[in-house]
Amino acid sequence: MAEAEPLEMAYISEVILKKRKHKEESIALTRKSQLELGQHGGKKRKVEDIKRPEQLVREFRERELDLIRMKQRTKRAKSALSTPNSKLLFVIRLHGKNDMHPKTRKILYNLRLTRIFHGVFLKASPGVLELLQKVEPYVTYGYPNAKNVSCLIYKKGYGKIDNKRVPLIDNNIIEQALGKHGILCLEDIVHEVANGGPHFREILNFLGSFSLNKPKEGLQGKRALFKDGGDTGNRENQINDLIDKMN
Questions:
Q1: DSSP assignment, residue 180?
Q2: CA 185 to CA 175: how far, in whole Å?
Q3: Do the beta carbons of residue 90 and residue 151 sit within 8 Å?
Q4: 139 alpha carbon, distance to own chain's centre
């Protein structure tokens, strides 16, 4: 029998072999790092981070109860809404995390109170007061004096430019953003906010919310109304004492 001719091996260039080796090495390193950090390269979950079924049920019930209470508050007669003694309000978010219903969270976000201990200036209109009534267990508010308006803006004020927070250290930033409204410096902003001027809304959209410090004292840790010995609701002029502790 004639001997079978040996099969010729396909020629593979050296460049391709090097690429294959590099790819295999990178895959091996990736797998090693995944094993060190946990599956898919993520951080290992702590046991306490895993919620038990009873905890999920409790949070669901708390959110549903929050919605029921919000509806009950909105059924109050409109005459129950106190007539504001000032055109300007300063609102501070004190509470609210996992126990809030999504509708409550949406109202807080619409008021630009996205985090605890954030504050915003608002005009005291019937619509604003109605919204504050709905989220009363989570916020406190009152009538800031001229001194605190100025201190908050000078000390905690940031401008929003291209969705970035920019410290107000240069009047050129203010002129660039609000110059078309005749507002050229920090003094103009303070005057417009304190007096509820015609460009109040434009200024608030530019400033955003104020990030305040957690007060060492002055809060009772209760969601009851301030007039009933708690922390929330209308403090009227006494909001200035809380601002001093948080600014």
A1: G
A2: 7
A3: no
A4: 14
CA distance 204 to 54: 42
Three-class SS state of 4: coil
Q: Residue 118 pairs with which residues in a beta bridge?
A: 211
pLDDT at 63 over 70: no
> E-strand spans in 29-117?
88-93
- The type of residue at 27 is I
Token reading at 12: 């593979």
Q: Please, which residues have CB within 8 angstroms of residue 103's CB and are 6 or more apart in sequence? A: 67, 70
Distance (Å, rounded) from C-alpha 213 to C-alpha 247? 6
* Residue indicated by tokens 């609701």: 233
Let me know: does 110 contact 135? Beta carbons within 8 Å: no
Q: Using one digit for the tens of pLDDT, what is the confidence trace for 67-121?
A: 666 666 666 645 445 566 788 999 999 887 766 778 888 889 999 999 989 999 9
Under a CB-based contact definition with an 8 Å cutoff, are residues 90 and 150 in contact?
no
**Distance (Å) of CA 235 to CA 26, 176, 190, 229:** 62, 36, 22, 11
pLDDT tens sequence across 133-177: 888 888 999 999 999 999 999 998 888 888 888 888 888 889 988
Residue 166, strand partner residues: 159
> 133 Cβ partners below 8 Å, 6+ apart?
73, 74, 76, 81
How far apart (Å, rounded) are the C-alpha atoms in residues 165 and 155? 14
Determine contact, residues 123/89, Cβ cutoff 8 Å. yes
Average pLDDT value for residue range 116-129 = 90
Concatenating the DSSP letter of every residue in 101-124 gives -HHHHHHHHHTT--STTEEEEEE-
